[in-house]
Each structure stands twice: as structure tokens, then as C-alpha cells.
Specification:
alpha+beta, two-stranded antiparallel ribbon, Prot_kinase_dom, Protein kinase domain-containing protein, protein serine/threonine kinase activity, Ser/Thr_kinase_AS, ATP binding
């Protein structure tokens, strides 16, 4: 999880909003480093934000009420992704 949040922080420092964080958009390399892929909905923080796009399951609720895409939305989406992964990990411990 540290790698996911670290990569998100790295692109946020560059002013990038990914806008579609979900499990499929994080990959783990052979050396166990995490990389972000699929920048199809990405935008820069200082640009006009397009209509909300991305995967609804991982999107913050405020996007559906007309709010702009922000880095806070990326944090929410990454948190949902991490929680989902942790839940799967915990489930596998008990099986």
C-alpha cells in the first residue's frame, strides 16, 4: 500500500490528477515497485477540469453532483483500492 500512495503523491507533486485510480491501474514490477498506468482521464491541477470520468465504483460521490476533479478524489479512489486489496488479503488469511 505504501507504494500505491507513494506513486500517487509523486504524480500529485507534478500537478497531475489521475482521475481513475482503481486496482487495474496500479501494477507491481518484478522488483516490487508500484507503477501507475492508464492516464487516459488524467489532467493537470491548473487546467479546466472536464466532466467527471473514471470508474464509478472508485469515484468519490461529489463527482456525481457536479464537483470538479481534484487530487482529493485521487486520494479517495486510492483509499478504496487499498481497502479492497486489504479486505481480499484478510479474507485469504481465514480460508
Amino acid at each position: 500500500m505504501r507504494g500505491m500512495f507513494g506513486e500517487m503523491r509523486r504524480i500529485h507533486k507534478l500537478g497531475i490528477i489521475h482521475a481513475d485510480f482503481k486496482p487495474a491501474n496500479f501494477i507491481v514490477n518484478d522488483d516490487l515497485t508500484v507503477k501507475i498506468v492508464d492516464y487516459g482521464f488524467a489532467t493537470f491541477q491548473d487546467e479546466e477540469n472536464p466532466e467527471p470520468q473514471g470508474t464509478p465504483r472508485y469515484s468519490p460521490a461529489e463527482l456525481f453532483s457536479g464537483a470538479s476533479i481534484t487530487q482529493k478524489g485521487d486520494i479517495y479512489s486510492t483509499g478504496i483500492t487499498a481497502a479492497e486489496g486489504l479486505g481480499q488479503y484478510m479474507k485469504n488469511l481465514w480460508i
